[in-house]
Give the backbone structure.
Amino acid sequence: MREFILYSRLGRTDAKWKNLHDAGRLDIVYECIIASLFLSHAIRKDTVFHAILNGPPQPPLHLKVEGLTLRDVRTDVNTWTQILKKILSGNHHPGITLSKTSFEALVKNKATRSKIYVLEEGGKDIFEADIGENPIFVLGDHVGLPKKVEAFALRFGEKVSLGKKPYMAATCITVLNYLLDRREISQK
Ligand SMILES: C[S@@+](CC[C@H](N)C(=O)[O-])C[C@H]1O[C@@H](n2cnc3c(N)ncnc32)[C@H](O)[C@@H]1O
């Protein structure tokens, strides 16, 4: 199992918006969902993606997308614009849930079972870090993680880096999935 937690500073917590970008950068949430859960013609059953939405009008909201039960999806932006609108309006979609959970409560709960890895350019090189089983990765959005949020997550884990270049959050997830896939192959 692998899990990704995106801290979205401004992601809207209602469905009153026209497009993902103007909805407090829900386009980043969409990109991270695709990078986390989609292979070519398949969904990663062993992966869960979380976004904590901290935008108006009712933050925080915890959006959870589970590969095991996710159904009736494609990877295009129109499909996910409709799905996110539907979920944020209080309706259902298989594999996706919305709850009133804060980042702190989610991380604290997850840390009882697995180690937390906070993605940051200045962290320990990923090739030198000891990434355990069932890792949980925390990422910031286009602005990065607020200092207080980062400090909270670091109570339960460590900072890891993919190098000095600032990548998009979705790119980081793609790289992590690739590295974990390679590790799984070499362990077989
Ligand atoms: C677009 S970046 C945010 C850039 C922002 N200017 C900052 O300083 O955090 C989004 C997130 O991707 C992750 N990230 C980007 N590049 C990274 C790297 N080279 N190593 C580790 N994490 C990275 C971090 O979690 C970051 O918060």
User: Anything to note?
Assistant: Helices lie at 26-37, 77-88, 103-110, 147-154, 169-187. The chain has a mean pLDDT of 97.
